[in-house]
Amino acid sequence: MHYDHRIILLIAYFAYSCFAIIPDVHDKVHHPETQHNSENGHLSLPNLLHIDRIEDLELGWKTLGKPVFELGRLIFKDGGSSVWSLADLENTSNEWTLELVFRSSGTVNDDLKFNEENGFSLWLISSINSLPIDAQNMDNFGGPSQFDGFQFLFNNKGTKGLKIYGSDGSKVISNDLDSTIGNCAFNYLDSQVPFTLRISYSKERTWFKVQIDNNVCFKTDKIKIPEDIGDFSFGVSASSSSYSNEEYELLGLKVWNKLTEDAIDDHGIMSNGHVKVHYTTVVLKPEPTSNAYVKPGFIRESLMARTQRHKEELERQMKEAELLSSQPTENNLDTKIADILFSIERLGSAIDNMENSNDYNSKHILSQIEDLQNTYVQHKEKLQSLQQSLDDFKSTIAQQYSQMLAAFSKFNEKVIGEVREHQYSLDGLTSKVDLLMSNHKEIAYQYQKQSSSNAEKEPVSTIIINYIMKCFSFSLYVGIVFLIIIYREKRSKQHSKLL
Length: 499
What we know:
This protein is of the alpha+beta class.
């Protein structure tokens, strides 16, 4: 059999290149304990996709200002606001990991000029030597201006990116670049994807490390947290100018009282906003057992290291192939073809494992979609129930209003009837008084006539008696008129009160 060694080398290069860039999905599918997102610590912020309102956080978290909960995220905007854990960071002086996921809606063209007012902070502070965490101490981008601990500030003053401040609580730290203990320069504006900030500390390994999107941007062995400082309080705060459209979205905050695998593994090194390739070649010796799985806590290659190792192996085999091609024999070609077929089989196995992993991810995504659909159905049922209650309330209000109008109508008719009755009684009394006055005038006239005819015959005593009778009659007349006036006034007052 005669084959063109160039075709063989091309096939080998393709097989090894494809195999090198495929992640080790097999181990992750069959050994789920290697997943870097292990079970979240109990101090972590609850999954914001599983809560309905910001009040659901009150059992373990305290909010200051006006953070807004919307679609699985906490939004910080328009002035200072913050959210703080009610529980302290356990194991503070020994070992821990914090992982923060956030996004900024700002743009360079519109919001870069607000670098003095806009900022987003993660806090790790001792409550013993810091200002109280309350609404009166929010002048430092939503947090205290005087603190004992660390502030991890994202803003664009001095340089774009993350600035790390450390303080012992004895004075106010100015938010400028000269006061930092370290910084990570990168641009988080004009980004439609979230960023992940990971902070880890280990007393045993003597490190304090900060990672942005799995890339190391700050690491030192000079920071040691004393045991007598107590456990740190931790929280997130932000503030922005009222003239700026920039908003900060908190998507998650995970806390562990140990080092996670991603905290241990340095995928890359960030410098001036760029990632420098950092890899380590590790030669693995096969173990005598059939299980070739190695726990990540013991040896764990990063993807870049694995790619580099396969590249070096490919170059070595290509050189061997060139040496063998100078003296081609049928046995050498058969051996090379067998190697290529073996590599293709490994490639197929890796692709199958990757498909299994995709199935797993698809199932996980479908499960989340089903949860969202169930939540939507529940909210829809609640909304329908609320709408029914609102309709019933409107019907009750309309019925009560109709009854109230009917009652007012009856009352008005009753009042008008009573007024008419009183008016009729008053008219009758007036007519009787007029009749009495007419009779009195007639009697007075007859009396006067009789008196004039008998004036000459009557004695002086009779004249005096007549005079007294006239005075008495006049007084009686005046009293009757006065009583009539008083009666009319009382009736008019009663009438006005009824109306």
